[in-house]
Design goal:
- The chain has 147 residues and is of the alpha+beta class.
- The chain has helices at 43-52, 117-126; strands at 2-7, 18-21, 32-35, 38-41, 55-58, 65-69, 74-76, 87-92.
- It is 14% helix and 24% strand.
- The strands form three sheets. The protein has a three-stranded antiparallel β-sheet, with no helix packed on it. Strands 5-2-7 form a three-stranded antiparallel β-sheet, with no helix packed on it. A two-stranded antiparallel ribbon has the order 3-4.
Length: 147
């Protein structure tokens, strides 16, 4: 499993950017749970890791992507600045890495491939009430700004 963290806004130390403990993924999976008001990794283990591993601040520009191992210990500070810090976190998992027992994480199910035309067919069904869909002649965003 791997994660891709995509910056939408600038991510800076001032607005609480992502922080990672370098090489912490080599520690293996650390138990997560509810600790006070937060959910996260076991504080006893993370406190010990902070003492011996390098803390890296991921300062990113919009569009930058940070790829990291799913076991990498990471966190961010509260954004106390006036600047927003929106980002998108995408997690990827191989089909061979199913959960070992039933939980809130879904099991891998093979996807059925369908032809590209299915998108338009579904649009017709979704907008059967007469709403124009997929028709550039009725799309106000096509040619926007042209006189």
């Amino acid at each position: 499993m791997a994660s891709a963290f995509i910056a939408v806004d600038p991510n800076t130390r001032a607005n609480g950017c992502m922080q990672l403990l370098k090489r912490s993924h080599l520690m293996g999976r650390i138990e997560h749970g509810r600790y006070g008001e937060q959910t996260g990794a076991d504080p006893e283990r993370t406190d010990a890791a902070v003492k011996v591993l390098q803390l890296v601040y991921a300062e990113l520009e919009p569009g930058d992507v940070l790829f990291f191992h799913s076991n990498t210990l990471h966190r961010s500070d509260q954004n106390k600045s006036a600047d927003p810090r929106w980002s998108l976190l995408c997690c990827y998992n191989t089909k061979h890495n199913n959960p070992y027992k039933a939980s809130h994480h879904p099991f891998y199910e093979k996807l059925q491939k369908v032809p590209d035309s299915r998108i338009k067919e579904m649009g017709v069904k979704l907008f059967a009430d007469g709403t124009e869909f997929w028709d550039p002649a009725h799309d106000r965003t096509v040619g926007a700004g042209k006189a």
